[in-house]
Amino acid sequence: MERVTEWKPGRVLAFTVLSQPPAMEEMSPYRHLHTPHLTGYVVTGDTRYMLSPLRNGGTKLTLQAQTVLRIDPIAYWEPIARLAFHLNVRRVLESAKMQVEGLRIE
């Protein structure tokens, strides 16, 4: 669940994440498992989407997300987590790009 903290139509959408989705679902015949070993290790906080006009008439979309990693040994997990976060941000931006370009009227 998120709470919007800033909204400027056509410019900024910012929100803070109030509750985290499950990190993953374990393969199990049981529908709802409480997995404390997967809770709280990756926490997403404030997130911001910003639209900036470009000189060529296009628009630049920037995504900033605060993510906290709480897992040891941090020296081992941080590079892997940074890569995962980077790939996720890229996936989100590529998805937004495809949706917008699909809606473009020439």
Task: Kindly describe this structure.
The chain is of the alpha+beta class. The protein has one helix and four strands. Strands 1-2-3-4 form a four-stranded antiparallel beta sheet. The longest helix has 30 residues. The radius of gyration is 17 Å and the shape is elongated. The relative contact order is 0.13. The mean pLDDT is 84.
List the helices and strands and how they pair.
Layout: E1 2-8, E2 12-17, E3 42-53, E4 59-69, H1 74-103
Antiparallel strand pairs: 1-2, 2-3, 3-4
Number of helices: 1
Helix content: 25-40%
- The amount of beta strand, in percent, is 25-35%
Span between N and C termini?
36 Å
Structural class: alpha+beta
Task: Count all strands and give the number.
Answer: 4
N-to-C SSE string, H for helix and E for strand: EEEEH
Q: Specify Rg, calculated over alpha carbons.
A: 17 Å
Explain briefly what this protein structure is.
The chain is 28% helix and 34% strand. The protein has one helix at residues 74-103, and strands at residues 2-8, 12-17, 42-53, 59-69.
Question: Which features does this protein show?
Answer:
four-stranded antiparallel β-sheet; 4 strands; 1 helix; 106 residues; elongated; alpha+beta; 28% helix
